[in-house]
């Protein structure tokens, strides 16, 4: 229930608010001419593929197939502001550490390759040749195992393939990706239980499903174009059930900004039939409750000769059902209610939607993956779907909504610290080398290595690693102890302000900018959340004549680092990306056959998924039921004064890129330094609205971590849970606080105390 005192936005998602959001950025960013043309072609076949989220780019697209956030991302990239060497001549790097994330990126596009000058404590312009040879020289002198090659999920399939190849030719599998902070739980859990590391639904499934269960994914902010098929589904009678501690407006109601009637009449569509405010970390218990209801209904049905469970599917296609059934039956409702924070009644009502639906899709996001027992969250969600054969049938499926626009694709073409997921034998044959076979470093391992001094070099292909990771205080201190740090980026961010002995900041083209190489303008490709591959072609004039493409930068560094090898042709590949697509096809012939010919397939080409065909590449050869050992996903015990902190994104940010200070959908304006708390918790803690407080870590390691200056803001949240913004609260997350199987940092239930 919403509390009267709660700050909240009563408007729907989409609607006029989203248009105002776009026009505000338009005013602020002075985008280059031609930006409207770019937006008109955004996410359409033969057009440019947005750099914001990984939502699909359908063949039967809308007139404008971009959302508020996609438009913001494009405008942010096509700004006329420039961050030049003159800017750095006026500001030291130490001084810039006091700037906000917003202000750093607001300086505009980076224009020149830059070297960090320690004496001047600032960046100075250098030549590309200087940068490449200095980086190559340093990498050659280091043990390859001590270097990390991070990627943030945006770079194309072509660049990503070559980046991963470079790391392996150099001698390591140290290829962590933003996915390691995000959906790595998915890659590990789904691989284990259904034998495929990605979701099984495709876009068309949304037109035939009868129910959609949402766990911890915030569609309105993070994948707004998904609201269109959702709205259509609701209109044809599909029921939506949401589990989320926060009442997110996008999952409550929406107005389609592309429908003149809806815009003029204010007619909104109610999205969720049931909205259950589960406790942060309470999903294993909530899912257990749903499964318990399904079993109870099956017992009833069986007495009259019917069945709720899909017994044929369970018998033929799954493993360990009996043990799972026993676990569900023996778990008492009181425990489920306690751990989920939900009543039996509410869970039974939601469970009944599942029982009655013939075809169900399970959607999830960071609410499930960023938990200490995130693996079990996903295992339980799959359990629920398996009970009624809701995987591998039209209109069904398990469907993680991926984050960065090409994060899934980067994993597909080899950016992975897990050598067993990469066809190393084939690479060895193609490029005549011996590939490293030892496991590489995840994000958490890389952080550990930087802290203990074993990691000596860090190359960042995009992203804002230092700001996105946990344990930010200690990490910022340790970072400068590295020998070499290199960041390939479009805009200045906090990670560029912590530098190793030798440090370079290399500016690259954005995806909306024309990429001219020897063979002419180049196409790049990306993979969306439904495993569809899309070509992207960009026409805007680059922000500076000194920029290079990401692919050319990777090739430039690789060439200076590695010994010559006639099978490795960096210049040829840089001159013509279609040759890199040929390499991808040769490496993954089943998924990427006829790659160059299929680049502009409307709606993308589907690279397939075995689990969708009910082929289970698991240990048992069947889909696995998972038996969680605990009902709480939070991974720590509750105690007096300890809260579960949820770190949230607003619709006015893309990860660490903060466009502005308007969290329109949650009604929080003008500041991000807030502590969201239910009015009853505020009273219980003896606080008052508007009071400025701090948060300190309450992890059992006893280590001091603190963030201050947070204004207590009443907000509709379950008891025991408080919330604030990512990345500002990242210093509070211990490095050891991560999913037990995948090491994804557990940013959605962090143990903290309030300090007054
Ligand atoms: N505008 C915008 N779009 C984005 C991004 C962005 O920052 N801004 N980031 C992109 C990236 S990289 C990613 S990974 C995706 C992330 O997109 P999402 O997966 O939606 O991630 P979050 O917004 O971090 O969290 C999702 C939801 O989980 C809920 N939640 C928190 N704890 C729990 C819990 O214990 N249980 C349940 N059931 N729910 C919980 C939160 O209230 C929130 O609504 O979005 C992508 N798209
Ligand atoms: N507490 C907490 N922490 C989290 C999360 C959370 O929910 N809570 N979410 C996690 C998740 S899901 C993710 S994905 C990570 C995100 O971590 P990252 O992917 O590392 O971070 P971003 O903020 O997406 O990176 C932004 C920077 O990317 C650069 N950039 C933008 N476009 C381009 C481009 O086209 N090319 C190149 N080379 N650079 C470009 C710009 O310099 C910009 O400043 O954060 C994680 N951290
Ligand atoms: Mo992400």
UniProtKB/TrEMBL annotation:
Which cofactor does the UniProt annotation name? [4Fe-4S] cluster; Mo-bis(molybdopterin guanine dinucleotide)
Q: Which family does it belong to?
A: Belongs to the prokaryotic molybdopterin-containing oxidoreductase family.
Q: Which domain of life is it from?
A: Bacteria
Q: Does the keyword Cytoplasm apply?
A: no
Q: Which PANTHER family match?
A: PROTEIN YDEP, RESPIRATORY NITRATE REDUCTASE
Task: Name a GO molecular-function annotation.
Answer: 4 iron, 4 sulfur cluster binding
Keywords, comma-separated and alphabetical? 4Fe-4S, Iron, Iron-sulfur, Metal-binding, Molybdenum, Oxidoreductase
Do you know which InterPro entries this protein is assigned to?
Asp_de-COase-like_dom_sf (IPR009010), MopB_CT_YdeP (IPR037951), Mopterin_OxRdtase (IPR006656), Mopterin_OxRdtse_a_bac (IPR010046), Prok_molybdopt-oxidoreductase (IPR050123), YdeP_MopB (IPR041953)
Q: What is this protein called?
A: Molybdopterin-dependent oxidoreductase alpha subunit
**What is the source species?**
Rhizobium rhizoryzae
**Boundaries of each Molybdopterin oxidoreductase domain copy?**
109-485
